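Changelog entry: the Methyltransferase 4, N6-adenosine record was regenerated in this release. Current contents:
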Amino acid sequence: MFDFQKRKRKHSELNQGEVDSEAFHKKVRSVILDGTRSLVDSVRSLGYLKEETDAVKEPLPSQECRLAALCEMAKELPLVDDEEQECCSQSLVAEDGCSSHVDLFSGLTENRTDRAAVVTLMGEEYVIPPHTAFLLSDFTRIQPLVHYGRMFDLVVMDPPWENKSVKRSRRYSCLPSSQLKRLPVPLLASPNCLVVTWVTNRPSHLRFVRDELYPHWGVEVVAEWFWVKVTTSGQFVFPLDSPHKKPYEMLVLGRYRPSVDLSTRFVPVEDQQLIVSVPSALHSQKPSLSEVLKPYVGAEAKCLELFARSLQPGWTSWGNEVLKFQLLDSGLISFCILRPASPPNQC
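Regenerated structure tokens:
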């Protein structure tokens, strides 16, 4: 006879990861709740939010990125020797203003013009912002980025963290945490470079970034921020205390080889800041951090995004889905706000 009571007791027991997650949630709960209330009230007073409560909707199915499949096929191509890497970038638009033939895998592709360009790849149209460079590749072909000859003042990355639900849905390929150490961040970051990593609210991922990955690169942790996801009426997209999904994710910010004169060059990075936004309906699309990070890196900073799924004007981007959200019919983030987690004295 099947023992339903035994199964119920066993199902109710939490594993160590779940215990750690609950402990972490209790630690940050008041920061999330109080800070979000303050920000949402400020924005609602400006008329940016709806008054009615809207229903929580599941993200749209992730679009299949056919360019990621191209990266797999490109592994069969011969690797370019270091001696042949002198010219590791190519212009998307020729001098006569027409689109030029580009090899997306051997080097970085640049839109050097002041206007966005529309290109057709595999029968689909993609929008390439002005003054943008990108490399479509995976780890096996990241060398053109290293040979690009540019050191960056800001590096942002959103790794494809291992996740059971993602594995089941097959939305995208996951990457073991240990593989992230292979990223050549020390070869790409200038001294004092701000390194920002999106992290799920899984404590093991947070510990890995804070205690293993950043020290491996020579990056010193300076702050941990939260991205809080709300509906168009200002409600959490999931109940704050939901045992399954939390309405927030984290960002770990650090400085690469910080120098002693850092305080005189940049605004100090404050800890426990909140970014509050209405998330895109497209799975895994994150809000742009370009404007909110500008005070900490300067207006003229050279910026790089790793594991990118979209492009930003003036940025360099790398990933095997780097053009995923550049399709003409992609969605957009509705709004994004950054304020201290504690209620400000005045708006």
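Residues 48 and 232 are 9 Å apart (CA to CA).
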